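Lab meeting notes turned into a lecture example. A postdoc, R.K., suggested we walk through two folding results consecutively so the class can see how the record format repeats. The first protein's sequence and structure tokens come next.
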Amino acid sequence: MADFFDAFAVASSGLSAERTRLTTIASNMANARTTRTPEGGPYRRQVPVFESEALDPFGSSLEAATKRVVVSGITQDDRPPIRQYDPTHPDADAEGYVLLPDINVMGEMVDLMTAQRAYDANANVIEATRDMAMAAIGIGR
């Protein structure tokens, strides 16, 4: 039977996933102009991959349908770098062009706000579930 602990598990997995998303967005924004990485070439935008996972796949149909979020990995965006003319840049090629990451900072800001709102929503679910559990304990007294 689904209970308070399942609600906590689902919401806490959402918190963890959104924290990973926030971290990757921050990394993308910090490296929006990075032209040289240890792997070579410009920084590549990072994207977390979320998947759902059943809390109890062998339970009732409700329990099997109750899912949590897991981060299955972090992938690199496959968009090619932007070629920008800047012959004074230390990483410019013979023609004076520099390869920059294809990162839209405004788009990353929108993703950041969305991730923050999702994080807040999961935190509110945990708080509401805690309040319901405390009220249930109070009824039992």
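The second example is placed directly after the first for contrast:
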Amino acid sequence: MSTFDDGKDADALRTIGEVSDGLGIKPHVLRYWEQQFPMLKPLKRSGGRRYYRPDDVSLVETIDRLVNREGYTLKGAKAAIRAGKGSEAVGEVPTMLSIGVAPSDGPDLAAFLPQLKAIRARLAAIIEA
């Protein structure tokens, strides 16, 4: 269920504006996500007005968490949701295997660790300056 409280019953339908205000996501982003995530299908009534069901709102929250807080790409978030990984608790860091990527699918990521640490150190220095 949704984590925002807009005074409506938990099972009530919400307009795109209500979802946008409640979650802090711009309406154009919600409409774009509908195109990118086929499982996100709010009801559309006359005039194309969208009504988000509680499950739709929950899915939007999951997409927002994966993309904006956990750093997934849209493609990665879509794959994680399809694989049932989208409902992991906030703060859990997905491993490559947990999202279906085998170590043999790409370069040895351990080889990049020194470079990533150097980049992190440079960014920290910039932020502190």
